[in-house]
Design a protein that fits this description.
By secondary structure, the chain is of the alpha/beta class. It has one domain: Rossmann fold. The protein is built from eight helices and six strands; from the N terminus they run ααβααβααβαββαβ. The chain has a four-stranded parallel sheet with strand order 1-6-5-2. It has a two-stranded antiparallel ribbon with strand order 3-4. The longest helix is centred in the middle third of the chain and has 13 residues. The chain is globular.
């Protein structure tokens, strides 16, 4: 009855009948090699460090994402995060598993939400993603990270993003040597790096970042 009154539509193309259609799932722009070995951005040939991460002090050993953050992926993520279409988590996990090789790690964790925004949304996509990936990779899930409130990253320059999240995260240790840190979108790497830095301070020796999408410049 609910489907008759409020028919479901694909969050990307608007096709009736499903929240995310099979055609749009196939068309999501997968990220394929060659990549920067460190930050995972696509490159013309394999490199250890690309122009984007060269010269930066990065707390994470590597970052990998499954799809480019284009208009279709932006619509998908907006529905998942802001409109709480939770069933989209299954599609996101399926694409990550398809594209990102299984990590070498002891635990899976996730970037926690800003306290105020987390309460308003009532759910947290990075945690959903981490829970399902941990199950698929047969790794334990842990939640050692804590996050204090900060200004939103949206609209800030890359330098401003780094300053904005500096010191925002703390981790309750000790944590294992090798950690997979999951988030939904890698934009500039500032949030991932700040969270990874907190994990390193709590005892992690290697932090690998895994995200559903990333901004490719």
């Amino acid at each position: 009855m609910l489907d008759l009154l409020l028919p479901q539509r694909c969050v990307v193309c608007g096709l009736r009948g499903t929240q995310f259609c099979a055609a749009c799932l196939v068309r999501l722009p997968r990220i394929e090699p060659p990549l920067c070995e460190r930050c995972g951005t696509p490159t013309a040939w394999p490199v250890r460090r690309c122009r984007e991460c060269s010269g930066r002090r990065l707390a994470f050993a590597s970052a990998r994402a499954s799809v480019h953050y284009d208009d279709a992926v932006r619509a998908f993520v907006a529905a998942w995060k802001e409109r709480a279409v939770r069933r989209l988590a299954a599609s996101a996990v399926a694409v990550v598993i398809e594209v990102v090789p299984p990590p070498r790690a002891d635990i899976v964790t996730f970037v926690p939400p800003d306290p105020d925004r987390g309460l308003r949304r009532g759910h947290h996509p990075p945690r959903q993603l981490a829970e399902r990936l941990a199950e698929h990779w047969a790794l334990p899930l842990a939640a050692p990270l804590r996050r204090r409130a900060a200004k939103r990253q949206r609209g800030l320059s890359r330098a401003e993003r780094r300053r904005n999240v500096s010191g925002v995260f703390t981790a309750k240790g000790p944590v294992p040597n090798a950690v997979v840190l999951v988030d939904d979108v890698y934009t500039s790497g500032a949030t991932a790096n700040a969270a990874a830095s907190a994990m390193r301070k709590a005892g992690a020796r290697r932090v690998e970042i895994v995200t559903f999408a990333r901004v490719v410049r």
